[in-house]
Amino acid sequence: MNAPSKRLQRWFASGLEQQQSGRYERAEKTYRKILKHLPGHSGVLVNLAIVQWRQGRLKQARVNAVKATQAGTNMASAYAILGAIDHDLGDHMAAIQSFKKATELAPGLGSAYSGLATACFALRKWPETIGACRKVLSLTGPETVADPSIYTCLGAALKAQGQLNEAERCFREMCEKHPGTPSAFENLASILADLGKHDEARTMIKGQLADTPERPGLWNTLGNLCVTAADGKAAREAYRRALAIDPDFVDAGYNLGLLDLCEGHLDRGWTGFERRLDLSHLNIPGIPCWDGTPAPVGCLLIVCEQGLGDTLHFIRYAALARTLVGRIVLLCQSPLRDYLKRIPELDDVVVFGEALPDCDFFIPLLSLPGIFTPSLADIPGTVPYLPVPKIEAVKDHDNVSVGLCWAGSPDNPTDYKRSIPLEVFIPLLDMPNCRFYSLQYGEHGDDIKTLGLDDKITDLRPYLNGFLDTAKTIQQLDLVISVCTSTVHLAGGMGRPVWVLVARDGDWRWFKDRDDSPWYPTARLFRQTEPRHWSDVIKNVHKALSVRVRVGDG
């Protein structure tokens, strides 16, 4: 303090002791008392913001954190707590900016890098997450051990980037440094399974269960391993064991629901699938959730969730919902608005961040199947249900025109499972009487030039400025071949021929052991038999395409 009195020093020491012992309300009163004598003192403001943050009073805490950043001293600590508050408020970009400022002011402040890693992870900024986590580990001295959350964050980001060997090393170190942390062995087992080391993964988890059979997370992990090994019976038993220990264990209930859906048991699968909402906390304040009760004059708000492909897939249910309500408003992702507003059953389409019109009730989009589809036979598979642009197609009668999409969004944490390196497609590109066009979006479209395939694949990115443009392009193609992305759902929803390249433990919506799809009658599935190995899939596509070229139809 600036020439502090002994009394103020005693108050500050008392407030600090109260803060450290968790008596946050008392500490807050003490810090406020000090600020009456030393208004604008940065250290006191930082501590006041911290105790208010600990009490969950985020807005008040933020006001004092901002004041602390303007005080001229203790700036790094001020920006670090401001970042933590913004992160909890859901403003992850603002949090990242504050944490970066803190690291610039104090390059050795490990807590700022930890916060930066967490905020970057929330926005799926995988490279930035990895960099921040590694900085934390580099600042950890030989006598100290990094918090287990850093290892979890680093390993998950490495996994999302497809750096599975690095992720394995990370989680092995986590097991070594934090052997008593339940998630350490669960994370390692998941990576081992992704690397094809199924026996080692299951043996390790069973060994952990022998010592601590009361941990539901271990049973849930064992269930996931059994799913990867295509042992549905054992997976079901493991998930049920987890739920017997803790009926409120969301992950196990959700995973059991996914397993039921994958195996075609839709009636009970949708119930488990609803557990996803316990993880996402999707809610519209002041509006009750719709349960399917007819409301002929009511207005229903359908809230899109998860990815763009999920919206394109399940928007088919808007037509069914429209038969029970007076109006439908769709709240969707910005890239889809201009395309989806052409659906006649939608009275209004708004995007996230915009003001909502008055509605009587809401429902998450992916909850609609639980109301309308109790069995496989009830799946609304009529196509097209998505808008089909009216264009005059120019037909090349000498060649089969094929659209390709080989990678999904890198922001998806499981993208490493579904995306395929473009070089794996090369054997397909010499097929006689075929012309290939890239429907690939984003940086992966650069793979064409990188691999010198400009003469074999036409890059259409300059002409694809939205989903409506992509729909017009698909309408002119004879066939779309794609990994599981929004392109698949766009083509399938338009009723166009589409071949889907499905990972071994792919999405539940493709169901188990099928090469067709009740969702999309024009779809054909080509399934991977071993994780991370796509060459056999492309060989099967090559055989099917050669037949397609010969006979001239699908």
What does this structure look like?
Among the domains are: 1-140, Tetratricopeptide repeat domain (Serine Threonine Protein Phosphatase 5, Tetratricopeptide repeat), CATH 1.25.40.10; 295-378, Rossmann fold (3-Layer(aba) Sandwich), CATH 3.40.50; 400-551, 3-Layer(aba) Sandwich (Rossmann fold). By secondary structure, it is α/β, with parallel strands linked by helices. Helices cover 51% and strands 10% of the residues. Helix 22 (415-418) links the parallel strand 5 and strand 6 (434-438). The chain has 26 helices and 10 strands. The strands form 2 sheets. The protein has a 6-stranded parallel β-sheet with strand order 7-6-5-8-9-10, sandwiched between helices. The protein has a 4-stranded parallel β-sheet with strand order 3-2-1-4.
List the helices and strands and how they pair.
Elements: H1 6-20, H2 24-37, H3 42-54, H4 58-69, H5 75-88, H6 92-105, H7 110-122, H8 126-139, H9 148-160, H10 164-177, H11 182-194, H12 198-211, H13 216-228, H14 232-245, H15 250-262, H16 266-273, H17 276-280, E1 295-303, H18 308-314, H19 317-322, E2 325-332, H20 337-340, E3 348-351, E4 361-364, H21 368-372, E5 400-405, H22 415-418, E6 434-438, H23 447-450, E7 457-459, H24 467-476, E8 479-483, H25 486-493, E9 498-502, E10 523-527, H26 535-551
Parallel strand pairs: 1-2, 1-4, 2-3, 5-6, 5-8, 6-7, 8-9, 9-10
Helix pairs in contact: 1-2, 2-3, 3-4, 3-5, 4-5, 5-6, 5-7, 6-7, 7-8, 7-9, 8-9, 9-10, 9-11, 10-11, 11-12, 11-13, 12-13, 13-14, 13-15, 14-15, 15-16, 18-25
